[in-house]
Amino acid sequence: MTSDSSPVLIVGLGNPGTIYAQTRHNAGVMVIEELLDRTTPMPAQLSVHKKTNTEVAELTAGRLTGRRTILARTRSFMNVSGGPVKALASYYGVKPADIYLIYDELDLDFGTVKLRLGGGDHGHNGLKSVTKSLATPNYNRLAVGIGRPPGRQAPADYVLKPFSKQEAAELPITLADAADELIAALS
């Protein structure tokens, strides 16, 4: 899925601020945190990258994958993620085929992860923004299933709520599965 001439860019989508930190919409950011914890010889940390309105960790080949890897999360709200993702890709010279976007997916059961290249946005405003900014849908997407809202709860409200107690107990497994999926794809 990737070409060896450019670094790999892995971006976790979510909303900024502590009020959103543990919400379903921040599943992508949570996977980035899992990946940061896995870097060797010690966990990596994100630092502010003002030119792109993001937070990044630049990893040399071998710290997480066999390639130079840029881990990032946007500092903007989900619905306007495209600008920062495009700015990162431009700054680091990353082609769309070497971008891996991690996001929450209503249409997958909680705990399911799915990696794919290209495709539609499934109504996800973060993906719409990125596709528009990159002018192509041909980037990698790692969907982290959060399931559909119960009853008649509006999806927009559901994604901004914290995980249930049962989901929160199972969440570390899902985040580990998502990180495993990405690392396997890049090995």
From TrEMBL:
<dbReference type="Pfam" id="PF01195">
    <property type="entry name" value="Pept_tRNA_hydro"/>
</dbReference>
<comment type="similarity">
    <text>Belongs to the PTH family.</text>
</comment>
<dbReference type="GO" id="GO:0000049">
    <property type="term" value="F:tRNA binding"/>
</dbReference>
<comment type="subunit">
    <text>Monomer.</text>
</comment>
<feature type="binding site">
    <location>
        <position position="77"/>
    </location>
    <ligand>
        <name>tRNA</name>
    </ligand>
</feature>
<feature type="site" description="Discriminates between blocked and unblocked aminoacyl-tRNA">
    <location>
        <position position="15"/>
    </location>
</feature>
<dbReference type="GO" id="GO:0072344">
    <property type="term" value="P:rescue of stalled ribosome"/>
</dbReference>
<dbReference type="GO" id="GO:0004045">
    <property type="term" value="F:peptidyl-tRNA hydrolase activity"/>
</dbReference>
<keyword id="KW-0963">Cytoplasm</keyword>
<keyword id="KW-0694">RNA-binding</keyword>
<dbReference type="GO" id="GO:0006515">
    <property type="term" value="P:protein quality control for misfolded or incompletely synthesized proteins"/>
</dbReference>
<protein>
    <recommendedName>
        <fullName>Peptidyl-tRNA hydrolase</fullName>
        <ecNumber>3.1.1.29</ecNumber>
    </recommendedName>
</protein>
<feature type="binding site">
    <location>
        <position position="20"/>
    </location>
    <ligand>
        <name>tRNA</name>
    </ligand>
</feature>
<dbReference type="InterPro" id="IPR036416">
    <property type="entry name" value="Pept_tRNA_hydro_sf"/>
</dbReference>
<dbReference type="InterPro" id="IPR018171">
    <property type="entry name" value="Pept_tRNA_hydro_CS"/>
</dbReference>
<dbReference type="GO" id="GO:0005737">
    <property type="term" value="C:cytoplasm"/>
</dbReference>
<comment type="function">
    <text>Catalyzes the release of premature peptidyl moieties from peptidyl-tRNA molecules trapped in stalled 50S ribosomal subunits, and thus maintains levels of free tRNAs and 50S ribosomes.</text>
</comment>
<keyword id="KW-0378">Hydrolase</keyword>
<feature type="active site" description="Proton acceptor">
    <location>
        <position position="25"/>
    </location>
</feature>
<feature type="binding site">
    <location>
        <position position="79"/>
    </location>
    <ligand>
        <name>tRNA</name>
    </ligand>
</feature>
<feature type="site" description="Stabilizes the basic form of H active site to accept a proton">
    <location>
        <position position="104"/>
    </location>
</feature>
<keyword id="KW-0820">tRNA-binding</keyword>
<comment type="function">
    <text>Hydrolyzes ribosome-free peptidyl-tRNAs (with 1 or more amino acids incorporated), which drop off the ribosome during protein synthesis, or as a result of ribosome stalling.</text>
</comment>
<feature type="binding site">
    <location>
        <position position="125"/>
    </location>
    <ligand>
        <name>tRNA</name>
    </ligand>
</feature>
<dbReference type="InterPro" id="IPR001328">
    <property type="entry name" value="Pept_tRNA_hydro"/>
</dbReference>
